[in-house]
Amino acid sequence: MTPLIVALDYADRESALAMAARLDPGQCRLKVGKELFTRCGPRIVQELQGQGFQVFLDLKFHDIPATVAGACRAAADLGVWMMNIHAAGGREMMLRARDALGNYQNPPLLIAVTVLTSLQETDLRETGVDDEPVGQVLRLARLAADCAMDGVVASAQEAMLLRREVPTLLRVTPGIRPLGTAQGDQQRIVSPSLALAQGADYLVVGRPITAAQDPAQALAAITAEITQAMAKQLPTQ
Question: Secondary structure of the chain: what % helix, strand, coil (to 5)?
């Protein structure tokens, strides 16, 4: 299955469903974030699943442990493929989230957010984190691995380090931009082929596909780049 996840960063149901209709569930999964989910509720997840897509529910739960555990159960009841929580919520919160999914036959992948790709060292220092992003990413990733998370969200620039230091974790990488596309509000970005070479397992791509004149063609081009990059990683016989 493709490692590509397309971010449906829309404010209304109609736009999200219209974009999904132009994409191929055999070539990508879809990400539903805070704005779309808040406006449309669980229905949008169910409708996208009805179109054949697996859904990454990107709500980044960060609250007291009992609240996060309940939210994780609610997401699992929707049948989502992947969901995430903030590693900064701490050990007890992550453990309770893990336990909340223990009775599901096919639970969602539970991914921990480390450091948002919009943050730089100066931003971290303003919040009391006296470290550069890579140091904080590694600290939170180790904690996530210790709490039996399935993976982490981190910049592809940290993926190689994470693959070496915490190899049990899947690496989900936003901030993916094909060469020649706009950076947007992401700071730590790389191309799809470079992200895979650096150790990313799943790539989150938004506007380079959804804002393209022909989204299906943009998806196909990125898929071709991913296929070529993954072929280069296969061991030779």
Answer: 45, 15, 40
DSSP notation for 112-153? EE-S-TT--HHHHHHTT--S-HHHHHHHHHHHHHHTT-SEEE
Alpha-carbon distance of 32 to 48, in angstroms, equals 9
* Predicted TM-score (pTM) of this structure: 0.91
Using only C-alpha atoms, what is the Rg of the chain?
A: 17
CA dist., res. 26 & res. 229, Å (int)? 18
- Grouping H, G, I as helix, E, B as strand and the rest as coil, residue 17 is helix
Taking Cα atoms as reference points, which of 161, 152, 165 lies closest to residue 202? 152
Which among 190, 218, 184, 203 has a CA at the least distance from the CA of 19?
218
CA quadruple 207, 211, 212, 215: dihedral positive or negative? positive
| pLDDT tens by residue, 117-175 | 788 999 999 999 999 999 999 999 999 999 999 999 988 888 999 999 999 999 999 88
Q: Which CATH class is domain 4-233?
A: alpha beta
Give the residue numbers annotated as catalytic, written as ranges.
Answer: 60
Q: Work out the angle at residue 229's Cα, subtended by the Cα atoms of residues 227 and 235, and round it to the nearest 5 degrees.
A: 100
* Single-letter code of the amino acid located at 213: Q
- Report yes or no: 110 and 80 within 8 Å, Cβ to Cβ: no
Cβ-proximal residues to 120 (8 Å cutoff; 6+ apart), any chain: 133, 187, 188
With contact defined as beta carbons under 8 Å apart, do 81 and 29 qualify?
A: yes
Spatial separation of the C-alpha atoms in residues 93 and 108, rounded to whole Å: 17
